[in-house]
Structure formats: C-alpha cells, structure tokens
Amino acid sequence: MPPKTAENRLVFPKGFLWGTATSATQVEGHVINEWTDFVAQDGNHCRTACNHYHRYGEDIDWMASLGVKGYRMGIEWSRLQSGPGAELNQVELDRYLDILKRLKQAGITPMLVLHHFSNPPWISKLGGWTNPAVVAAFVDYVRKLVPVLKDHVYIWNTFNEPDTYASLCYLLGGFPPCRKWRIGSFRKVIRHMADAHVQCSGVIRRLYTNGVTPEIGIAKNWTVFGAYHKFAFWDHALAGLCHYLFNEFVVDAFMGGERGRASNYLGLNYYGRSRFLNFQPLLPAGGASPAQLKRLGIVCDDMMERYPAGLGVMLKQLYARYQLPIYLTEHGAASSDSDFRIHDLNQHLEVLHQTMKSGVDVRGFFYWSLLDNFEWQFGYSKKFGLYSVDFADEALPRKLTAVGEFYRQICRTSLLGMEPAGKKV
Ligand code: BGC
Question: What is the best residue among 169, 274, 330, 371 to mutate for testing ligand 1's pocket, by most ligand atoms within 8 Å of CB?
C-alpha cells in the first residue's frame, strides 16, 4: 500500500514504473502507411512529424534527463514487412534494436506496442482489419518480429485502443479510410483484432524459451460517458449506448471468458469524460466551442472533459472484474496552458494514489506524450508533450515544458505533493 511521508507527500511504491509514451506514426516521420497522404484538419501531414526516425538517440537522452524508467513505444509494421508472409527488413529491424539497446543503457524499460492506428499499404488494400485474412498476416509478422526483439523486451502491448481505431475508421470518419456509420465493419475490426491478440499472445509466450515470462496485454481506452442533465432520458440512453459499444463490447471481445487468459496485465488509457446535451457531445474534440463549455461549467483540455474521479472508478471496476495488474498506458492533457496541465496531472495522480491505497494493483504510469506530435486528424495543434516541439522551425527543437519539469520531479522521487504555486483551474 502506498504510504504518506511525514511532510504529507504522497509516496508511490518502490519499483512503480514512471514512464512516457509515443507512437511511431505520430513522431517518427518518413513512414509509408495510410497516414502518409492524409491531410489533417490543420492542413498538415505526418511525413516528417518530429523526425524521431533520425533523432531517436537525442530523444532517448531527453527521456533519460527526465528520469523516466519506462517508455511505451510503437513498432511500425509498414517499415518491416513489404507484403504477406515477407521476411522482415533487416535495416529497419536494426534501427529498432539500436533503440532498445540505447534504452537499456539509459536504464529505461521498453513496453512495445505492436499496432497503434497504422498498417502497411498492402493491408489497407485488403480492406484493413475488416478482412479476416489480416489476422493471419499480423500473426505471421509477430511470429517473425518477436524472436529478434525478445532478448530486449518483456512487456508487449499488442493493440492500442482498438475502440478508438475501429470507431474513427468506420463510425465517425476521422481516421482513414474515413467511413461513417458502418457498424458491421466496426464490430468486425474489433473481433479480428481480438482474435489476433489471442493468437499473438500464444506466439509470444511460446517464443520466450529463456525463462522470462513476458507481460502481454492490450491498451484499452476508457471514456466515461454521461448526460449533462440528470433527467435527460435520451442523452442518458445515448451515453449508455456509447458505453456499451466503445467500452463493454470491446473489453469483452478481448478479455471475456477464455480469451481473458491471453493477457496477464490490463493496459488502460484514460483521458476523461464525454457528456451529452441534446445528443451533442460536450467536448472540444466533438465540436463544442470554448464559450459554450465555459457557460456550462465544463472543464476541458483541448480535447476532452477532465474528470479525475473517473480514473478511480474505472481502475476499481476493471481490477475487480479481471483481477489483473494494471498499467496506465496513457494519460495526459493537451493545452498550451502549463498550469492547467500541471494541475491536471497532479489531480489524476492523487486519484491514482488513493486508488492504489485501496488495493488496486497498478504497476506503472506512462505520460502521454514525450513530445508534442502529430495528433492524427487534428495535426500539430494539440500540445501533449513533456517536451514541446517547434514545428515552425525546420530544426524541430525540443524544449522541456513546465509540466515536463513537474513530471521530472515525480519520476525522480516517486513523491507527489510538490505542485508549484500556479493558477488553479
Ligand atoms: C492515442 C494517442 C493519442 C492520444 C491523445 C490516444 O487516444 O493512443 O495516439 O495521441 O490518445 O489523443
């Protein structure tokens, strides 16, 4: 149980994995997948992104100076395999191996994400994850990848936010192939990814013959859905439907019944709440204006309603249900207001501490994100970085932000309670 020190600071347990996270398409640049030609709402694309592809050495140094002990990173399938059943590209494998070696030298434990919203072009041509043939293709890829990397990695995160991916590709139209209201495709994608997760878990376990037990899980995004008015029947009904479709249906597809055995931890991404008013989601990312949100008293970053209490409820519910250790695989806030972000992080970590104190086994926390980066359909307008990146400058300079400084103290001491004086929200 995490104790409190005499000075009343909150102490996290020894060995708690303080980390940060990125995904390949969002930071690497120089990638050829379905995002290469995608033009985001701010008119930009991901072709250079943070140029992490060439600058990973420097970025690992930034991580080390932050004091993080964990790094959740993506491996980009489209770089490694040029067609169904093809051998993996050795040059690209060597680059990932070099990253893993440097992380080890820096004392940083990697968590590898195998699928984070992107696919090789030949997979997109097959119809992406709506096509059952993609399951076998992905398992073949993983079967070839794991033997090369297994001596450097023991935490595997197969799929990042299958719910976000399937809904934005096939229900809401935000991600390529930008289809809308194809509920059948949404369900197929989830089922195929869940099948691939189960099969990959078996493959990964069998390949670890070195006495190490690999940790295998997904990262499920968990949004709290609700109605703005207590007695708004139809808004409650819509919130219930979203909760079923995006939370319960998805988590059950991956973790329900026998399939639960494929995971030995649960990864959870938590950003906040989405409430409805006359069917409109009250979120900046859902089109609500700052003036409207202010009038309604809803506190948001540039994407979501902030709702720290929801973090505790989610952790308790899912821990009680699955009895698996949990990693918070993503949490962060997008804003150019540092005080807001610091306060937000502090509040969420207080809730996390309380929840762990009540007995929920949470093993680590990965702040989203190391760098300001390509935020998918929104481009570069959302500032999530512990380091800012100046995208207007060709040199793409990184600079520690105030929230990065705040997080650095936490990573180094495992103590919370040092929130600098600043504007409260
Ligand atoms: C995704 C990230 C994304 C972040 C912030 C998560 O949904 O995994 O790729 O950048 O949230 O929106």
Answer: 330
Residue whose Cα lies nearest atom 12 of ligand 1: it is 375
Instruction: Say what the pLDDT of residue 424 is.
Output: 47
Question: The tokens of 282 are what?
Answer: 């009250």
Span from the CA of 383 to the centroid of ligand 1 (angstroms)? 12
**What are the pLDDT digits (tens) for 74-131?**
999 999 999 999 999 999 999 999 999 999 999 999 999 999 999 999 999 999 999 9
Q: Point out which residues pair with 274 in neighbouring strands.
A: 225
Mean pLDDT for 390-407 is 98
Distance 219 CA to ligand 1 centre (A): 11
User: Does residue 375 have its Cβ closer than 6 Å to ligand 1?
Assistant: yes
What does DSSP say about strands 326-331 and 266-269: parallel, antiparallel, or unpaired? parallel
Residues 266/318, Cβ–Cβ less than 8 Å: yes
What is the pLDDT at residue 390?
98
Share of the chain above pLDDT 90, in %: 95
What are the distances in angstroms from CA 322 to CA 5, 104, 251, 361?
A: 31, 31, 10, 11
Give Cα 83 to chain centroid, integer Å. 27
In the chain the first and final C-alpha atoms are separated, in Å, by 30
CB 158 within 8 A of CB 114: yes
Distance CA 320, CA 311 (A): 14
DSSP assignments along 353-388, one per residue: HHHHHTT--EEEEEEE-SB----GGGTT-----SEE
User: What are the pLDDT digits (tens) for 355-380?
Assistant: 999 999 999 999 999 999 999 999 99
The token duo for 245 is: 């479709």
